[in-house]
Amino acid sequence: MKFSFGTLLKEALSGHRGWPRQWREPEPKPAYDVVIVGAGGHGLATAYYLAKEHGIRNVAVLEKGWLGGGNTGRNTTIIRSNYLCEESEALYEHAMKLWEGLAIELNYNVMYSPRGVMMLAHNEHDVRIFKRHVHANRLAGIDNEWLDPAEAKGFCPILNIDSRLRHPVLGAALQRRGGVARHDAVAWGYARGADALGVDIIQGCEVTGIRRAPSGEVTGVETSRGFIGAGKIGVVAAGHTSVIMAMAGVRMPLESFPLQALVSEPVKPVMPCVVMSNTIHAYMSQSDKGELVIGAGTDAYVSYSQTGGLHVTRHTIEAIAELFPVTRRLRMLRSWGGIVDVTPDRSPIIGRTPVPGLYVNCGWGTGGFKATPGSGHVFAATLARDEPHPIAAPFTLDRFVTGRLIDEAAAAAVSH
Amino acid sequence: MLQIRCPWCGEDRPEIEFRYAGEAHVVRARLPADESDAAWAEYLYLRTNPKGWHAERWHHVHGCGRFLNAIRHTVTDRIAVTYKPGEPRPTIDDQQGPTP
């Protein structure tokens, strides 16, 4: 069913009883051309673009839990493309361009809201690195501008720019095209789009093994719902990538850490943009429901627990209360954790692996949501053609052997 | 927050006294220049990252200042045992690990 003003009006008049299911719940077939492991935003986007742009529709997306229930539903939904290296600029800007047309592309409102992302500088080093980012981005045709403290406060009036703060605001880098989107809607929109093109989304189906032929190439996956044959396997399993890849005997340059977020009780609109602070490990925006959405740093240690230490969120809350004094008496409603797969250079890994037929898209670490459309788009092309999409080409697994790293530790914006 | 027993101090201390120092028992080659690129990348970057028992190093920075090793379960975060560097890795029979 195509959403339009006409269908909305018809359903409004008939009590909203005629809306169909947005995607099927199929039984797994014995085999598929491509099996995607992980039905988060990146995996669903991959399946969607495989079907839409490459005509590969005999595709299954396997999900051990429910669709969009991992990091897609747990992140703070920030979208920006102000990364430092040319390779990353190309990748994240590719995603940004897709975000701008995504609701129309999917006929699904992903509530993309380019309200501006402002990154605060608190010391001389921050100022220099952010100015370097601004210059690098502008050379690449990506919008990013430098604001002095008064201009930063003008853009976000609740910001405290008192020079006596423990970490005073010395300036900010602002990407006006940056913003937020509705994370669930992104997963649902891609799921609906992929399903309509014939992709089977199979939830509650955990991959427990990867079967390989004597010659080495993959033949399918063992799952909690039986064996499913596959010509190609794309692993898009975020924090669990190391676990899945170990099933094929591949060791990954990844570590999985809990990353926490929390939301306040809903209040009237006070926050017109996204503000991030690397130095004091805090970022905040306001959802359409009125909750202040706050992101914290990662825990120090490897964990799959989807919870984190209270001292991590406490540290973030202290920073938020200092930067935004208006929040000091707010109550927090919920906090949670997601498991992020972090690479040594804070850049993702997209492409082939040493195992024929096995592909991986991982290592998005603390900032994968912003890349969802671009990630799926270039990974689908890589899977379909068996050669890296030009934008994905630098993000190979073997860059850790050749030494050609893409260091984005400063742009990743979350302390690790 | 984790409670970590420092085998040097002999006391359970809160996690914020310590700094995490990565996977334990990752051995640096005696002559890195003689290593192949792949072997050197393995040492620098490849990690087990298991869902289960994990041998890891901690640095008691706000205590005795010394390093220690711990075996912790990465789903429950329970620490089964801590031991001094140089001691062999203990085996943990309990594969699942009781929830705390």
Describe the fold and architecture:
The complex is a heterodimer of chains A (416) and B (100). Chain A is of the alpha/beta class. Chain A folds into two domains: 5-74 and 183-251 and 345-411, FAD/NAD(P)-binding domain (3-Layer(bba) Sandwich), CATH 3.50.50.60; 117-176 and 255-342, D-Amino Acid Oxidase, Chain A, domain 2. Chain A is built from eleven helices and 18 strands. In chain A, the strands form three sheets. In chain A, strands 1, 2, 8, 9, 10, 11, 17 and 18 form an eight-stranded mixed beta sheet that branches. An eight-stranded mixed beta sheet of chain A has the order 5-6-4-13-14-15-12-16. In chain A, a hairpin with a 2-residue loop joins strand 10 and strand 11. The longest helix of chain A has 16 residues, at 124-139. Chain B is mainly β and 100 residues long. Chain B has one domain: Folate-binding fold (2-Layer Sandwich), CATH 3.30.2270. In chain B, the strands form two sheets. Chain B has a four-stranded antiparallel beta sheet with strand order 3-4-5-6, with no helix packed on it. Chain B is globular, with a radius of gyration of 15 Å. Chain B starts with a strand and ends in a 17-residue tail after the last strand. The mean pLDDT of chain B is 92. Chain A binds chain B through residues 240, 242-243, 246, 251-256, 300-305, 309-311, 344, 400-403, and chain B through 1-2, 15-16, 19-20, 22-23, 37-38, 41-42, 44-51, 54, 56, 72, 74-77.
Write the layout of secondary structure elements.
The complex is a heterodimer of chains A (416) and B (100).
Chain A: H1 5-13, E1 31-37, H2 41-54, E2 59-63, E3 78-79, H3 86-100, H4 102-106, E4 117-121, H5 124-139, E5 145-147, H6 149-155, E6 171-175, E7 179-180, H7 183-196, E8 200-203, E9 207-212, E10 218-223, E11 226-235, H8 241-246, E12 255-264, E13 274-277, E14 282-286, E15 292-298, H9 310-323, E16 332-342, E17 349-352, E18 358-362, H10 372-385, H11 399-402
Parallel strand pairs in A: 1-2, 1-11, 2-8, 4-13, 11-18
Antiparallel strand pairs in A: 3-7, 4-6, 5-6, 9-10, 10-11, 12-15, 12-16, 13-14, 14-15, 17-18
Helix pairs in contact in A: 2-7, 2-10, 3-10
Chain B: E1 3-6, E2 11-14, E3 19-23, H1 37-44, E4 53-59, E5 67-73, E6 79-83
